[in-house]
Amino acid sequence: xxxxxxxxxxxxxxxxxxxxNEEGNVRxxxxxxxxxxxxxxxxWEMIFVDDGSTDGTHAALAEIRREDARVxxxxxxxxxxxxxxxxxxxxxxxxxxxxxxxxDLQNDPRDIPLLLEKMxxxxxxxxxxxxxxxxxxxxxxxxxxxxxRLIAFLSGVPIHDFGCTLKAYDRSVFERLPLYAETHRFLPxxxxxxxxxxxxxxxxxxxxxxxRSKYGLSRVGKVLVDLLALQMILHFSTRPRRWxxxxxxxxxxxxxxCGAWAAAAYFSRPEGPPMIVLPGATFxxxxxxxxxxxxxxxAELVAATGVREKRLARVLGGPGR
Length: 321
Ligand code: UDP
Ligand code: MG
Hints:
Elements: E1 13-19, H1 26-39, E2 44-50, H2 57-67, E3 71-75, H3 82-92, E4 97-100, H4 112-120, E5 125-129, H5 137-155, E6 167-170, H6 171-174, H7 187-193, E7 198-202, H8 219-235, H9 240-268, H10 277-316
Parallel strand pairs: 1-2, 1-4, 2-3, 5-7
Antiparallel strand pairs: 4-6, 5-6
Helix pairs in contact: 5-8, 9-10
The structure holds uridine-5'-diphosphate (UDP) and magnesium ion.
Magnesium ion binds next to loops.
């Protein structure tokens, strides 16, 4: 019987792990995950995305890969950050479902079946909730609670822990996620843009045993900046004309007021000195509102082109991002 080439075999589940300098963890993670995944009785693959590690991570992954053909390794040329690592992994994932997981053993592979059970109930995104986080309160848990509340409020997705990497996605969702910069923290919020049915499940969390965290307090600032970007993506990307229209309105109204003032001044004293300021201001204000409106139309055109290209990519079988 001819053997089916590895790449052509259907895969039910892809487990996706971004790793950056985790040489002390990858082997143990693989060893912990395999029995859990085998018990699921599905065709699975485990994708490690090596995000430009400079320690022995890549050698360790190559060794795991040699021993287990279900493991695939994607190596990025330099350290691009967790979001890009995840995006690369999603591009390579062949499964109908993808579970993402930290590579440092802080997430527990034993929670994977739990997330999949939730998906069986009809959810397309299941987000892990580290209710009992094993991290310092002031530098980690407090900023995280504040950020999570804010993201939940802005996005209208009522979950507690956006930052947990342990999540499960249906293919129909992750193929459409706009992933760039550091948007991985907002994935459930972004998934809500695609209309995904989203829920959460309480998962275990362990302190880091090997290696160091890649983030410090500077993350707080980045999250705040990204929140603004999220706000734009969520509410602006589909309807830019409205935003620019709203911006243009006060200028148009003050232009009209200036114009009326100028006309009133002229008709009350037609023989007075020639007016410069009021007609000038009227012209500038109208011009500004017209400029903003045109920008809105232009942005709408760009957004529409993006949507059309995404559709086209899907029809042609491209990655659809
Ligand atoms: N990570 C990555 N690229 C980076 C930073 C982190 O792939 O630039 C990986 C890291 O190896 C780990 C996961 O993302 O598997 C989460 O990182 P970390 O544990 O440092 O974050 P924390 O748990 O402290 O929030
Ligand atoms: Mg960690």
